[in-house]
Write a structure and sequence with these properties.
Elements: H1 5-12, E1 42-44, H2 46-54, H3 59-66, E2 70-73, H4 74-86, H5 94-107, E3 113-114, H6 118-134, H7 146-158, E4 161-164, H8 167-176, E5 182-184
Parallel strand pairs: 1-2, 1-4, 2-3, 4-5
Helix pairs in contact: 1-6, 2-4, 4-5, 4-7, 6-7
Length: 188
């Protein structure tokens, strides 16, 4: 099977984006949980898992989670799992830090985990590249937007709403693809 790279380029149109994107006012961003249709599933950014572990998810998000199908994007789970390898095993604080992360990853139903398709990977890479260029990201940090873009496009592909507190990066992604469904929140 061949993928139509030209259609990805046409959808993202790198030539259209030549200037830095400005961050929009909070009032212009999707922070209202009441505007999310009841039948839509959620796909979490890594920030949701982190805030849940810390007890810092807003009640409105917790309440919505109870009534939704939750999908788990492999890129977000990988962001959590990298901590397992990064933390120093010799540090006495590591076991206490890792235990809730490992427990959370263990509890996730594998049938709810979704991985990006090849086409999503390609489109995400192009979009992350556009943002790296337009936002003047240093060369060594050019992959900064990749995981968020993967999750953003996975949500769009599955008809889910991406839930995140990362309003700065999601604002930029929504400017590139305004029809994607996102719900933003502030950490408590």
């Amino acid at each position: 099977m061949r993928f139509d790279v030209q259609s990805i380029i046409a959808r993202t149109d790198p030539g259209r984006w030549s200037r830095p994107l400005a961050h929009r006012p909070r009032a212009d961003l999707p922070f209202d949980p009441l505007r999310v249709p009841a039948e839509v599933s959620f796909l979490f950014d890594a920030t949701v898992y982190i805030d849940q572990l810390k007890g810092q998810l807003p009640a409105a998000i917790v309440n919505l989670m109870a009534s939704r199908t939750i999908l788990h994007g492999a890129p977000a789970l990988a962001e959590l799992a990298v901590t397992i390898g990064v933390l120093d095993p010799a540090d006495r604080r590591t076991p206490a830090t890792l235990a809730p992360i490992v427990e959370m990853l263990t509890r996730i139903n594998p049938s709810r985990i979704i991985a990006p398709s090849y086409e999503v990977w390609l489109e995400a890479a192009v979009m992350a590249g556009i943002l790296a260029r337009t936002q003047n990201i240093p060369k060594q940090d050019r992959r900064k937007f990749l995981n968020d873009t993967l999750l953003f496009l996975q949500a769009a592909e599955t008809g889910s709403v991406m839930v995140s507190r990362n309003s700065r990066d999601l604002d930029l992604l929504l400017q590139l693809k305004p029809r994607a469904a996102v719900l933003l929140y502030d950490q408590i």
